[in-house]
């Protein structure tokens, strides 16, 4: 009888507050926004790349892609949550001129700085874990239609191409997602060896 009063809405916040953050991982899941978010490893670009993706995310429907990403620079793969307000995307860019990934990231940051007034742009950082793709990453916040949107972009060299991974959400939501997203970025593997 006593257990009838305990529903998930009451139990999950207690579990979240009692869960040691060090126990959370891509393999075990993360408590995000009061629920357990689980992840699975998926392969992209004909199996060349593997990356963890939230199990609750779906492939963004084409008609939504055209509205949300209306340019020719639309990412190749876009995963999104069911509300459509959090995206994780992957693109494999040709690098004919063999530009260094760090130079490419700095140029991208400079372009953003010039083209968007009021942008809050972070520093360029380096993410390297043995056995995984070395990534250069930076973040920025821009004003969307009615609120600030947070973007985290990572770039890494893959077999003479450049893998670009982007995560975006409302500015308020990044604090819930950042640790999981950084782990995703740090666990992307090149499988074409």
Taken in chain order, the helices and strands follow as: HEEEEEHEEHEEEEEHE
Counted by DSSP, the helix tally is 4
Mean pLDDT over the full residue set: 87
Biggest sheet features:
8 strands, antiparallel
Which shape, going by the Cα principal axes?
Answer: globular
| Gyration radius, in Å | 18 Å
Helix content: 10-25%
Catalogue the unreliable spans. Answer: 5-9
| Distance N to C terminus | 58 Å
Strand content: 35-45%
- Judged by helices, strands and strand pairing, the structural class is alpha+beta
Q: Indicate the multimeric state.
A: single chain
Counting DSSP E segments of at least 2 residues, the number of strands comes to 13
Can you describe this structure?
A hairpin with a 4-residue loop joins strand 10 and strand 11. The chain is of the alpha+beta class and 193 residues long.
List keywords for this structure.
alpha+beta; 13 strands; 3-stranded antiparallel sheet; 24% helix
Short account of what is shown:
With 193 residues, the protein is of the alpha+beta class. 24% of the residues lie in helices and 36% in strands.
Secondary-structure map:
Blueprint: H1 8-18, E1 30-32, E2 35-37, E3 39-44, E4 49-54, E5 58-59, H2 62-68, E6 77-80, E7 87-94, H3 101-115, E8 120-121, E9 125-127, E10 135-143, E11 148-158, E12 161-170, H4 174-186, E13 189-190
Antiparallel strand pairs: 1-2, 3-4, 4-13, 5-6, 6-7, 7-12, 8-10, 9-10, 10-11, 11-12
């Amino acid at each position: 009888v006593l257990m009838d009063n305990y529903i998930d809405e009451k139990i999950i916040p207690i579990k979240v507050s009692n869960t040691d953050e060090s126990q959370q991982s891509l393999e075990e899941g993360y408590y995000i926004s009061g629920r357990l978010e689980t992840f699975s490893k998926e392969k992209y670009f004909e199996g060349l790349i593997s990356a963890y993706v939230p199990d609750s995310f779906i492939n963004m429907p084409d008609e939504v892609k055209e509205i949300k990403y209306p340019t020719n620079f639309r990412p190749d793969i876009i995963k999104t949550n069911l509300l459509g307000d959090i995206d994780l995307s992957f693109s494999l860019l040709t690098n004919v001129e063999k530009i260094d990934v760090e130079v490419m990231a700095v140029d991208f940051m400079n372009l953003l700085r010039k083209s968007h007034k009021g942008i809050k742009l972070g520093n360029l950082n380096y993410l390297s874990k043995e056995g995984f793709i070395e990534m250069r990453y930076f973040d920025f916040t821009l004003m969307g239609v009615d609120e600030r949107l947070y973007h985290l972009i990572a770039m890494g060299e893959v077999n003479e191409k450049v893998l670009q991974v982007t995560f975006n959400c409302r500015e308020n939501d990044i604090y819930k997602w950042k640790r999981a997203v950084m782990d995703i970025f740090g666990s992307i593997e090149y499988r074409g060896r």
